[in-house]
Amino acid sequence: MFARFDKLNPPQFLAVVFGLAILVGSVLLWLPIASTEPVRYIDALFTATSATTVTGLVVVDTGTVFTRFGQVVIMALIKLGGLGLMSFAVLIVLALGKRLGLRERLLIQQSFNQPSLGGIIRLVKVLLIFSFSMELFATFILALRWVPEYGLAEGLFQSLFHAISAFNNAGFSLWSDSLTRYIGDPVVNLIITILFITGGLGFTVVYDLVKTKHMKRLALHSKIMLVGTLAINVVAMLMFFLLERGNPATLGALTWGEQFWATYFQAVTPRTAGFNTLDFGAMEPATITFMLLLMFIGAGSASTGGGIKVTTFVVIVLAVVTYLRGARESVAFSRAIKADIVIRALAIVVISLSVVFVSIFVLSMVETAPYLTIVFEAFSAFGTVGLSMGITDSLTDTGKMVLMWLMFLGRLGPVSIAFALAKASHKNVRYPKEDVFTG
Amino acid sequence: MFARFDKLNPPQFLAVVFGLAILVGSVLLWLPIASTEPVRYIDALFTATSATTVTGLVVVDTGTVFTRFGQVVIMALIKLGGLGLMSFAVLIVLALGKRLGLRERLLIQQSFNQPSLGGIIRLVKVLLIFSFSMELFATFILALRWVPEYGLAEGLFQSLFHAISAFNNAGFSLWSDSLTRYIGDPVVNLIITILFITGGLGFTVVYDLVKTKHMKRLALHSKIMLVGTLAINVVAMLMFFLLERGNPATLGALTWGEQFWATYFQAVTPRTAGFNTLDFGAMEPATITFMLLLMFIGAGSASTGGGIKVTTFVVIVLAVVTYLRGARESVAFSRAIKADIVIRALAIVVISLSVVFVSIFVLSMVETAPYLTIVFEAFSAFGTVGLSMGITDSLTDTGKMVLMWLMFLGRLGPVSIAFALAKASHKNVRYPKEDVFTG
Ligand SMILES: [K+]
Ligand SMILES: [K+]
């Protein structure tokens, strides 16, 4: 059994583990004790897939249809999916290191500051401690807010569930309208977003930040992630505010304070948290179009977020600017980006777009919902975002299967692609070069 | 004056020439003698842009609103646009030759079989003779069909107008429903499609075909174009038939013979002819989704067609397959494709998608038409296709300006990008390599 597993390469291994978790989870969610009303198997499977891939799209209301048992199963799948993903990402980066030349291996080891096997085990330990402490700390703060409101048992569970869901970028909520009721609540807004932004940066970045005192000494990957995330979030806030401030169904009807929090929340959630405090079905088509880009970009490598990843996006922007200028090499923070990395990033975009395109094609055959809602749903599933314009539960079974496929691929895809592409040849270089993880 | 023009690089020069042609054309079309009813300047400008960029999107009915004078202006702009484009493409390839190393220059000269300046002049001569003979021959055949139907003067003009429009992939028709009335007519179907497929292959391919006796000795570029065009057209026919055969508004209501011709015609027109014999507004969303891909792919380099080009698409498919397999180099017809070419192709896709995305974003702000019709319109304009789901004439002025911008960029874009990217460095190679024009 273990011997056969040994023959799988890392992405195949991850696919098998995730597939098994989804299967076991779907059976548990299908049990009569998991729900207050009969749930079809495809809906249990969809829920298990959405939880394990930390997406957050739902076909059955988490808070009312699933019992506390069902909710605990969902929470466990989220924790497993998020943790498995992060530790797997760490392992895959280390595995990549073994396939690469001395220089690349040294670069990777430098970015982790872990040269030995003992170091790796310690790294995973730190990862475990880090994620549990973040979740527990957040649970405590949220409980201060929710225990007075919902009572001790209920309030504590609400806090724990949302803390785990947020840190792992899962987007599951116990309320059918997500966090809409806390649209102007600073505590909920701040804690939830801090959790999913931290989880979305990627463990390697957080680790690098903690280890490295000086900003200048951060790895190129960390610098790109931090500056890229900040820049994208600021642009997203501006765009969202300008596009929606006149919409009476969203920002238009709110107070100034609510507008601020709602703008901030909706700007940071598409990459790839999936919570919402406004109704996405009521937003302007232009806002939704812009959100497609945000959902496609996603979060960081080795994180709980999905999408093509911020670094991939930054590398592509730099590469395209470089070529339009006729320059020889893309440069970021005084480091040249290798041609290999650029090709890998461009390939990830093309492959990702192809997968989404084929899915939209199939969805447009079987679904009758407006085209934009279908497009949004497909990008949301592939980016494991979990936002929806409200059509998920009325999809056909074929449509649900397409979304499950998208969530699964979206979760495995970029990491697997990065692994596959890691075999690419390495050419002679003129500038000092440094790797950027674009998985 | 000429000295200043000399300082422009070829894409800038093309932009200035096209811009001037559009301006002059728009003024001519705005004159009272050009139309039977007053035409707004923006509509005259739109028509001139659509004709010069050989797109075919119309905001004013060509056959009824424009007089014979106006129609001749449109025909002249199409001829100028198409010819200017093809000869410019030949010149740019030769100009690229001067910027490249000895090996690349030899490859380009080999594909033209023209090593000297005298050869280049002869090449442009052949191009002129070839395009005029194709158009005159087609006019003659179409006249046999249309002179009996419309009388001598009218029938001859119809024939000449549609021959020029088809060979230059312009998609302009004197009938408001394009060629819908000839849906089952073998002569019209065959002549029009032969014209736009030949025009869309690109002059270099046709020239190579005429010069080279043996298929195996064709340039790599020609082989990819011929096999790629055939494969895409066959797949498009199958897909179109399967998706639309049950649609009573399109194939469903037709006889077998009409179904055959309609399937063939609609499968080949999206890349980038722009004529239609069926109503695109009545097609299934899945068909339209598939058409988006066909319109984005487009026709050949140095042709009258638009899009990212068939070779770019083939290079990308090969590159992605190569990387997924972990192989070192993409290979087509026993020739390795250079990393430079791959990066260039991927960059063209990313840049093109970005342009279309921004346009869809702006259109979704100002237009109220269904989302899919807007997306279709944007891809059609950027690919200089000219197909529409029927919303062009009801667009806002902002929307029309976005489409003009798209047509102009779509026409100049890939060629200019290819030129910009031609400065990229050349690395040492292991396999015999050969260039593929992905502009
Ligand atoms: K999510
Ligand atoms: K056209």
TrEMBL record, chains A, B:
Membrane topology listed for this record: Multi-pass membrane protein
Write out the GO cellular component annotations.
Answer: plasma membrane
Subcellular location(s) per record: Cell membrane
Q: Which UniProt keywords apply?
A: Cell membrane, Ion transport, Membrane, Potassium, Potassium transport, Transmembrane, Transmembrane helix, Transport
Please list every transmembrane segment annotated in the UniProt record, as residue ranges. Answer: 12-33, 72-97, 117-144, 187-210, 222-243, 288-321, 341-363, 369-390, 402-422
Do the record's keywords include Cell inner membrane? no
One family name in Pfam for this protein: TrkH
Q: Which NCBIfam families match?
A: 2a38 (TIGR00933)
Protein name listed in UniProt: Ktr system potassium transporter B
Record organism: Paenalkalicoccus suaedae
